[in-house]
């Protein structure tokens, strides 16, 4: 018999995490009623002024009154955000009957406590501490994510064209650890999808060359347009950093620029892999998406606003896992970074 030809096993295909589903924490009726009651009580605390530090303190205390099952899941996610770096809490109280019209003005924020805003702030206090950035949406702790007339093409949350993948405030040394997006109202056609892609799904698919380039300080990142002019960009930084076997991600496809040809190629590869591995969630009222901003980028598919008061409306808050680290940027130990 002739000798067997040597056959080479194709390299084992890395286990694709891309089929990994975003975990859902369902909030049942009993828990929803409880969350509602706690959040409603909170609306009367400290004059109901969200950005008053006394109100944030009341929200932090109220976290302990939330249903234990909900708190347990959130604390598990806080410890390990899993292969998608995203969690969907479904069924939070958002009363459609009393919900006002969707705001349409630029820079819209919530100043007065409501049940949804209270829910966001309690959960933010469980994941870490809520925080905001003064140049962005006037430093409000609860911000509206709504389409704004005339800003359709804006690469920020006032736009309605497709929004590219980004780590929130990637340029900032104290960018949020978690981004929380609570849906109050879906878009008319039910097509606006929150897209997320986690570095843990992307890493096994990257070529070694791209991985090496992304790990080198060959990128700079500008502030997003929501910060307005005047905020500076970064020093050269790496897109992948931290633990080689579970790196952190720092990139904004609209704002991160490569400094070398290999960095440019690697960014294109990364963009392709974000698209390949992305999960898309059509948020419905009462859905809270929590994105681990250290390992996961997010974006949004396009949709068509009508500016009729019934447009898509999310409320957004940021969380810092270790508030103390940003003390230098926070006058009077408040929750707003300058
Ligand atoms: O509209 C969305 O689903 C996400 C918008 C966004 O990136 C943000 O508000 O940070
Ligand atoms: Fe964002």
Annotation keywords:
338 residues; Double-stranded beta-helix; 9-stranded mixed beta sheet; 4-stranded antiparallel beta sheet; 7 helices; binds 2-oxoglutaric acid; binds fe (ii) ion
Question: Would you mind describing this structure in some detail?
Answer:
This protein is of the alpha+beta class. It has a single domain, classed as 4-Layer Sandwich (Double-stranded beta-helix). 23% of the residues lie in helices and 21% in strands. It contains seven helices and 17 strands. The strands form four sheets. Strands 1, 2, 3, 4, 5, 7, 14, 16 and 17 form a nine-stranded mixed beta sheet that branches. The protein has a four-stranded antiparallel beta sheet with strand order 6-15-8-13. Strand 10 and strand 11 form a beta hairpin. The protein is globular and about 55 Å long. It starts with 23 loop residues before the first strand and ends with a strand. The site of 2-oxoglutaric acid has 11 residues, from strand 7, strand 15 and strand 16.
């Amino acid at each position: 018999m002739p000798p067997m030809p040597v056959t080479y096993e194709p390299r084992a295909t890395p286990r694709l995490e891309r089929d990994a589903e975003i975990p859902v924490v369902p909030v049942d009726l009993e828990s929803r009623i409880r969350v509602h009651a706690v959040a409603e009580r909170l609306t009367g605390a400290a004059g109901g002024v969200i950005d008053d530090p006394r109100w944030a303190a009341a929200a932090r205390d109220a976290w302990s009154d939330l249903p234990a099952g909900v708190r347990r899941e959130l604390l598990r996610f806080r410890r390990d955000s899993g292969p998608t770096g995203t969690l969907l809490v479904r069924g939070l109280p958002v009363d459609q009957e009393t919900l006002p019209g969707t705001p349409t003005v630029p820079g819209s924020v919530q100043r007065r406590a409501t049940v949804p805003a209270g829910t966001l702030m309690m959960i933010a206090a469980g994941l870490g501490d809520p925080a905001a950035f003064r140049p962005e949406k006037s430093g409000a702790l609860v911000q509206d994510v709504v389409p704004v007339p005339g800003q359709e093409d804006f690469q920020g949350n006032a736009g309605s064209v497709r929004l590219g993948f980004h780590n929130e405030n990637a340029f900032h040394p104290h960018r949020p650890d978690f981004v929380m997006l609570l849906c109050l109202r879906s878009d008319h056609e039910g097509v606006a999808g929150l897209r997320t892609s986690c570095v843990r799904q992307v890493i096994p698919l990257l070529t070694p060359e791209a991985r090496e380039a992304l790990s080198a300080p060959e990128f700079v990142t500008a502030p997003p347009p929501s910060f307005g002019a005047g905020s500076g960009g970064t020093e050269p930084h790496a897109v992948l950093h931290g633990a080689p076997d579970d790196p952190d991600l720092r990139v904004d496809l609209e704002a991160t620029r490569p400094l070398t040809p290999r960095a440019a190629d690697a960014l294109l590869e990364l963009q392709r892999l974000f698209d390949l591995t992305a999960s898309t969630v059509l948020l419905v009222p009462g859905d809270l998406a929590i994105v681990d901003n250290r390992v996961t980028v997010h974006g949004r598919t396009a949709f068509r606003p009508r500016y009729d008061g019934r447009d898509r409306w999310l409320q957004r808050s940021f969380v810092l896992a270790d508030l103390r680290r940003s003390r230098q940027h926070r006058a009077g130990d408040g929750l707003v970074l300058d």
